[in-house]
C-alpha cells in the first residue's frame, strides 16, 4: 500500500507519522533529536514503520477471528519482546564500538584489562537491562541512550573498582561510543526482529494463549503487506538539515496548523509550546493558516525554560507539573528571562515561599507569555487547540484554562494525548496531498 | 545565438554599472567635500533624511552631513556593533534608537565616516523634521557634544489625515522667520529665491524618474526589487543630492537601465545576479535591517520573492501620489514635502497606502519588518497589519529585526517566519 510520511524535527525530539491511503494514521515514531538530524529522522521514521506493522497486525488479528481473547495484551507482549530484540542488537553494537575505542593508544599496557572489563560491563548491562523487558516491567524511557547509559554508569563503577581501572576513562569510552552508535542509521531488519520477538514470546508464554499456527499466519500477513513510501515531508526547526529537496519541506507553522485541524476540525486557534519556541496560529475552516506569531529573540516560556527551572530545583522535568499542582496560593513571577526567573525563584525560596507555590507561579508566567503571543496573532477563536510537549504538563494546562477563561470566556480547549505528533501529522497530510490530490 | 545573448547581457551589465558607479562617485564626492570643509571653509549642516530641505541648504553653499546615513553605512560595513557598545558604555540604554547610538559611538571614536575620512564638526544642526521625536533628542545630544547652533523646523503631525492650509502656513512662517535667517547668518550668504526655484525644478525632474522606476514594479515580472533594490535607488534623492544635476543624471541612467530590463523581460538584479522566477510579490512595511542586509535579501530572492512596493522608500518623501517640488511655490512645496513624509502620516493614511500598493501592484500580501529600536515606525504596526489583511483579503506576516544592531538579527528566526509566510501564501493561492 502507498504510504505517506511526515517528520517533525524538533529541538528536543523528532517525531514521525506514517499515513495510509485512507488518510488513517498507521504508525507513530519518536526519538531524541541528537546532534544528528539525519539519524534522528531515520530513527523516527523507522519507529513509525514499526508502529505501523503493529497496527497492521492488530487489524489482521481483529479480522481473522483467530479466537484471541486479548489482542491488546498480546500486542503489548509482542512489542515488549520486539523491543528487547532491538535493544540487545543495539547493545551489541555499543559493545563492539566500545571495544574498538579501547585501544592500546588510549590505555597503554592496560588494554587487555579494559577489554575484559568492558566485556564484564556489557554482560551485566545485558542481564540487568533484560529485566526491563520482562512482563509488567516499566521503562522510564524508550530511548536507547537513556537505558544503556544509566545501566552502564551503574555497573561500570563496580567493575572498574574490582579491576583497578580508571573509572573516568572507561566512562569516556562509553561517551565516545554512544555518539557513534546513536548516530548510526538503524539496521533494516525489522521483520526479522518481529519474528524473533514472536518466537521469544511463544517460549515465554507457552502456546496456550492461542494456536501458534493461526497467530503465525496473522503475523506473516501483517509482515507481508508492502509499505510503499510514496512521499515524505519534513518540518520543524531542523528541516533544512533534512536530506530532502525543497518541495519535501514545509514550515512547522503550516504543519502545526494543519495537524491541529486534522485532529479537531473545529480548530481556529492553535497554541504550540515546544522546546524552544512558542507559536500561536490562526487557521480557517480548512486548516489553512491565516496568521501566526512566534516568540522572538528569546525562548523564555518554552519547554527549555521548564527544563532549566527543573535543573535549578534539582528535580526531574516530569516532576515539575505535579509539584506545581500542589500550589495553595499564587506566587507572582515577573521575570521574562529564563535566567532571571531562576534568580527570582531562589529569591522566593530564600524568603520562605513554598516550592509548590513558586512553581505554580512559574507555570502561570509561562502561560502569560504565551497569551501575549496569542493576542498578537489575533486572539483566541473557538475552538482552541493546545499542542507541544508543554501540553502534557497539567499545571501548565490548568493555568492556560484559567487565563483563557479570564480573557476570552467560554472556549472549547482541545488537548490531544498525541499532541506531540501534531506537526508530523500535518506534514504527513501534506505528503498525502502531494501525491493523492495533485 | 549564444554569443549574441552573452553580448546583450554584457551591455546590460555595463549599463547597470553606470548608475551604480554614478551613485558611488556622488556619495564619495560628498564625503570628501565634508572631509575637506575645514580647509575649504565650506559650512557644514547636519540634518536628517525625512523632511530634509536640501534645496534650501544648497542655496547657502552649505554641505550636508546625514547622521542616519552614516549609521546605516556603518551597519552595512559591520561597524555599528562596536559603536553601539561604546554608546551604551557612555550611558545610553539598550532600548535607544540604534541609529543614534551608532552615530554617537562614531563621534566618540573620532567621527571617522564610512569612507574612512574624518567628518567635520557641524556649523549648524538643522532639525527640519519632527515626524520622529527621537530626532529632537538626537540633536540635543549632538548640540551638547558640539556646542553649535541649532535650528528647528516644527512639522505638525498629520493626525487628521491631511495637510491643512494652517499647517502649511505654519511651516512656511518658520522657514521665513527662523530657518532662512539662521542659515543666512551661519553661511554669510544671502537667500535667493530664484536659486531655490532652480534647484526645485531639478528636484522635480529626478522625482519624475524615481517614481517611474518605482512604479515599474507593476510589471510582471517586476524588473526591480522595490525594497532591497529600492534602498539603493532612493539613496541620492533622500540625501545631499536632491535638487542637483547629478541626481537628475543618476535617475536618468537608472531609468534607462530599468527600461532595458523590462525590454529583456528580466526580473530584479540581486547580489548574485539576475533573480530567478518571480513566485511571490510582496509589499513591505518598515525599514530593512542593515547589518545583515544581503543575508536578509537572500532569504527573499532564494524563494522567488520580490518586493513590489515598500513604505520605507517613502520615508524621505512620498512622490508616487502626485506630489512634486514646485518652483512656482517654493516654500509651500518644501512645507508640503516635509508634512508629507511617510512617518508623518497617521495610521489610517499608512493603511490606505499599503492597501493601495497591494491592489495596484497585484501583490500577494504584506510583510512587516518591525524594528526593535524604532518606535516611530513600529507603534501601531500590528493594528495596521490586521486592517490591511481585512481590507485586501491577502495574508500578512510579521518579522522582527533592527536597523543596525547586529544583536537583533536572528537569521534562523527570520528565515523560519519568512518561509512559513511564503508557504502560507502558496496554501492560500491553492485554496482560492
Describe this structure in words.
The complex is a heterodimer of chains A (438) and B (432). Helix content of chain A is 56%, strand content 13%. In chain A, the strands form 2 sheets. A 5-stranded mixed sheet of chain A has the order 7-6-5-8-9. Chain A has helices spanning 37-64, 71-101, 104-107, 111-130, 144-163, 167-182, 190-205, 212-224, 252-263, 303-312, 317-325, 338-350, 355-377, 394-408, 422-436, and strands at residues 2-9, 13-19, 25-32, 228-236, 269-273, 278-283, 289-294, 384-387, 413-414. In chain A, strand 8, helix 14 and strand 9 form a beta-alpha-beta unit. Chain A starts with a strand and ends with a helix. Chain A folds into 3 domains: 1-68 and 228-264 and 423-438, ATPase, nucleotide binding domain (Nucleotidyltransferase, domain 5); 83-182, no CATH class; 266-415, ATPase, nucleotide binding domain (Nucleotidyltransferase, domain 5). Chain A is of the alpha/beta class and 438 residues long. A 4-stranded parallel sheet of chain B has the order 2-1-3-4, with helices on both faces. A 4-stranded parallel sheet of chain B has the order 8-7-9-10, sandwiched between helices. Chain B has 2 domains: 18-194, Rossmann fold (3-Layer(aba) Sandwich), CATH 3.40.50; 204-431, 3-Layer(aba) Sandwich (Rossmann fold), CATH 3.40.50.11900. Chain B has 16 helices and 10 strands. With 432 residues, chain B is of the alpha/beta class. Residues 1-12 of chain B have low confidence and may be disordered. Chain B is globular. In chain B, helix 3 packs across helix 5 (98-108) and helix 8 (193-215) runs parallel beside helix 10. In chain B, 53% of the residues lie in helices and 10% in strands. The chains are: A alpha/beta (438), B alpha/beta (432). The interface between A and B is medium-sized, with 18 and 21 residues.
Amino acid at each position: 500500500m502507498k504510504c505517506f510520511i511526515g517528520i517533525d524535527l524538533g529541538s528536543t525530539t523528532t517525531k514521525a507519522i506514517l499515513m495510509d491511503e485512507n488518510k488513517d494514521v498507521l504508525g507513530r515514531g519518536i526519538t531524541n533529536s541528537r546532534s544528528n538530524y539525519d539519524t534522528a529522522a531515520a530513527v523516527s521514521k523507522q519507529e513509525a514503520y514499526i508502529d505501523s506493522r503493529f497496527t497492521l497486525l492488530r487489524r489482521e488479528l481483529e479480522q481473522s477471528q483467530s479466537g484471541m481473547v486479548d489482542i491488546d495484551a498480546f500486542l503489548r507482549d509482542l512489542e515488549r519482546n520486539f523491543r528487547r530484540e532491538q535493544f540487545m542488537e543495539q547493545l551489541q553494537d555499543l559493545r563492539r564500538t566500545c571495544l574498538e575505542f579501547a585501544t592500546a593508544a588510549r590505555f597503554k599496557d592496560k588494554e587487555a584489562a579494559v577489554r575484559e572489563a568492558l566485556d564484564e560491563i556489557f554482560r551485566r548491562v545485558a542481564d540487568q537491562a533484560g529485566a526491563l523487558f520482562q512482563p509488567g516491567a516499566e521503562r522510564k524511557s524508550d530511548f536507547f541512550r537513556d537505558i544503556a547509559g544509566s545501566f552502564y554508569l551503574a555497573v561500570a563503577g563496580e567493575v572498574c573498582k574490582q579491576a583497578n581501572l580508571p573509572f573516568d576513562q572507561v566512562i569516556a569510552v562509553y561517551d565516545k561510543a554512544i555518539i557513534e552508535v546513536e548516530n548510526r542509521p538503524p539496521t533494516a531488519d525489522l521483520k526479522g526482529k518481529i519474528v524473533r520477538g514472536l518466537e521469544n514470546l511463544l517460549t515465554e508464554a507457552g502456546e496456550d494463549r492461542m494456536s501458534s499456527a493461526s497467530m503465525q499466519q496473522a503475523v506473516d500477513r501483517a509482515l507481508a503487506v508492502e509499505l510503499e513510501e510514496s512521499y515524505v515531508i519534513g518540518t520543524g526547526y531542523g528541516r533544512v538539515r533534512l536530506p530532502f529537496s525543497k518541495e519535501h519541506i514545509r514550515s512547522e507553522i503550516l504543519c502545526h496548523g494543519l495537524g491541529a485541524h486534522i485532529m479537531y476540525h473545529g480548530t481556529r486557534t492553535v497554541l504550540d509550546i515546544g522546546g524552544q519556541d512558542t507559536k500561536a496560529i490562526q487557521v480557517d475552516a480548512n486548516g489553512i493558516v491565516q496568521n501566526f506569531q512566534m516568540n522572538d529573540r528569546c525562548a523564555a516560556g518554552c519547554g527549555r525554560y521548564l527544563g532549566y527551572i527543573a535543573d535549578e530545583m534539582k528535580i526531574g522535568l516530569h516532576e515539575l507539573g505535579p509539584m506545581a499542582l500542589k500550589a495553595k496560593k499564587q506566587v507572582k513571577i515577573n521575570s521574562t528571562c529564563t535566567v532571571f526567573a531562576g534568580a527570582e525563584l531562589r529569591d522566593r525560596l530564600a524568603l520562605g515561599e513554598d516550592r509548590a507555590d513558586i512553581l505554580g507561579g512559574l507555570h502561570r508566567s509561562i502561560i502569560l507569555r504565551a497569551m501575549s503571543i496569542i493576542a498578537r496573532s489575533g486572539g483566541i477563536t473557538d475552538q482552541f487547540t493546545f499542542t507541544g510537549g508543554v501540553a502534557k504538563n497539567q499545571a501548565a494546562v490548568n493555568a492556560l484554562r484559567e487565563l483563557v477563561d479570564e480573557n476570552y470566556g467560554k472556549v472549547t480547549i482541545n488537548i490531544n494525548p498525541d499532541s506531540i505528533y501534531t506537526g508530523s501529522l500535518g506534514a504527513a497530510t501534506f505528503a498525502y496531498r502531494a501525491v493523492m490530490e495533485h | 545565438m549564444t554569443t549574441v545573448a552573452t553580448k546583450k547581457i554584457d551591455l546590460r551589465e555595463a549599463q547597470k554599472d553606470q548608475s551604480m558607479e554614478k551613485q558611488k562617485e556622488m556619495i564619495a564626492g560628498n564625503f570628501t567635500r565634508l572631509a575637506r570643509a575645514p580647509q575649504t571653509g565650506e559650512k557644514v549642516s547636519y540634518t536628517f533624511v525625512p523632511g530634509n530641505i536640501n534645496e534650501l541648504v544648497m542655496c547657502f553653499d552649505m554641505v550636508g552631513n546625514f547622521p542616519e546615513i552614516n549609521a546605516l553605512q556603518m551597519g552595512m560595513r559591520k561597524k555599528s556593533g562596536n559603536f553601539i557598545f561604546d554608546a551604551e558604555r557612555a550611558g545610553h540604554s539598550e532600548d535607544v534608537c540604534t541609529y543614534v547610538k551608532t552615530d554617537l559611538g562614531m563621534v566618540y571614536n573620532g567621527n571617522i565616516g564610512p569612507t574612512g575620512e574624518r567628518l567635520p564638526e557641524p556649523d549648524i544642526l538643522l532639525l527640519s523634521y519632527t515626524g520622529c521625536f527621537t530626532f529632537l533628542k538626537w540633536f540635543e545630544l549632538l548640540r551638547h557634544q558640539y556646542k553649535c547652533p541649532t535650528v528647528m523646523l516644527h512639522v505638525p503631525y498629520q493626525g487628521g489625515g491631511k495637510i491643512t492650509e494652517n499647517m502649511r502656513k505654519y511651516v512656511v512662517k518658520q522657514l521665513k522667520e527662523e530657518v532662512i535667517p539662521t542659515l543666512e547668518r551661519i553661511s554669510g550668504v544671502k537667500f535667493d529665491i530664484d536659486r531655490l526655484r532652480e534647484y526645485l525644478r531639478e528636484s522635480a525632474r529626478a522625482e519624475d524618474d524615481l517614481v517611474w522606476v518605482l512604479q515599474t514594479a507593476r510589471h510582471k515580472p517586476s524588473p526591480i526589487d522595490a525594497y532591497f533594490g529600492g534602498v539603493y535607488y532612493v539613496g541620492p534623492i533622500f540625501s545631499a543630492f536632491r535638487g542637483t544635476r547629478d541626481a537628475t543624471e543618476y535617475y536618468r541612467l537608472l531609468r534607462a537601465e530599468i527600461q532595458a530590463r523590462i525590454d529583456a523581460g528580466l526580473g530584479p538584479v540581486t547580489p548574485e545576479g539576475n533573480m530567478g522566477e518571480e513566485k511571490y510579490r510582496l509589499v513591505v512595511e518598515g525599514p530593512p535591517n542593515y547589518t545583515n542586509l544581503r543575508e536578509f535579501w537572500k532569504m527573499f530572492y532564494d524563494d522567488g520573492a520580490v518586493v513590489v512596493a515598500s513604505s520605507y522608500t517613502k520615508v524621505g518623501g512620498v512622490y508616487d501620489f502626485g506630489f512634486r517640488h514646485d518652483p512656482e511655490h517654493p516654500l509651500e512645496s518644501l512645507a508640503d514635502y516635509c508634512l508629507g513624509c511617510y512617518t508623518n502620516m497617521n495610521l489610517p493614511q499608512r493603511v490606505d497606502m499599503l492597501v493601495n500598493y497591494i491592489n495596484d501592484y497585484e501583490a500577494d500580501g504584506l510583510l512587516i519588518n518591525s524594528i526593535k529600536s524604532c518606535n516611530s515606525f513600529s507603534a501601531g504596526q500590528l493594528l495596521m497589519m490586521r486592517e490591511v489583511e481585512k481590507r485586501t483579503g491577502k495574508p500578512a506576516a510579521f518579522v522582527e529585526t533592527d536597523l543596525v544592531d547586529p544583536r537583533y538579527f536572528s537569521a534562523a528566526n527570520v528565515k523560519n517566519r519568512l518561509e512559513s509566510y511564503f508557504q502560507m501564501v502558496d496554501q492560500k493561492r491553492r485554496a482560492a
